[in-house]
Amino acid sequence: MNIDTIILFAGIVFLIAIIPGPNALLVLFTALTKSRMQAFSNIAGVSIGFVVHAFISAQGLSLLLSQSTFAFTLFKWLGVGYLFWLGITNIRAGLKTKMLTLSTMKTEAAGKLQAREGLMGNFIKGFLTNMLNPKIVLFYLSIFPQFVSPQTVLADSMLLGLTQAIVVSAWFLVVILLAEQFKVFLTNAKTAKWMNYAAGSLFLSFGAKLATAKL
Question: Are 102 and 29 in contact (CB under 8 A)?
Fold first, then answer.
């Protein structure tokens, strides 16, 4: 795996990270209503979740991709479809963006998870919020295959999982340190609208680039 591949993957996961979703809103809500240390615990849980996702994904992909060129090509087009879907979804979201509130953030981020308070409780909450997010599962099933070599699926998958954990954690640390400012940034309808437009366009361009890639 070369550095260009890692940079492209990091760019995709960064775009996903900055669009407000369950993980980001959980971390921001914790930072604003509890403490930074508890928000750091959220981040640790989310990061471990990415590594676990990567390991599970590698186990299933390893045998399949090593034995079938057709499967590799199929996963490539699943990845293209997923990136196009992300692009269209974000553009549509931009068209109908509404103001988010802290109560909305709490509901979307935490859902029905009722972990006990404290560092371990917030670690578990971050881990489960990540592991139970169907969009993350879809991401690993559709995007990962075109970034890994059939001969080194496990090693490449773990490297990408670690890359995603580092990129997302770095972004969330900035969110925590500037929580009050990011509350306005992430819940402002106009800002969210243009973020969705920009991210949607970039996802579509990533999808087009992936469609022309030779695997």
Answer: yes
Nearest Cα neighbor of 130 from 37, 26, 10 is 26
| Measured CA angle at 48 (ends 47, 52), to 5 deg | 120
CA distance 50 to 167: 11
User: CB burial class (10 A; 0-12, 13-18, 19+) of residue 81?
Assistant: middle
Query: Which residue, chain included where needed, has tokens 């992300």?
Result: 86
Long-range contacts of 24-27 (CB under 8 A, 24+ apart): 24/109, 24/171, 24/172, 24/175, 24/186, 25/100, 25/105, 25/106, 25/108, 25/109, 25/186, 26/109, 26/110, 26/125, 26/126, 26/129, 27/109, 27/126, 27/172, 27/175, 27/176
Q: What is the pLDDT of residues 108-128, one digit of tens each?
A: 444 444 444 578 888 988 898
Nearest CA among 195, 73, 50 for reference residue 145: 73
User: CA separation (Å) from 209 to 77, 139, 146?
Assistant: 12, 17, 12
pTM exceeding the 0.70 threshold for the entire prediction: no
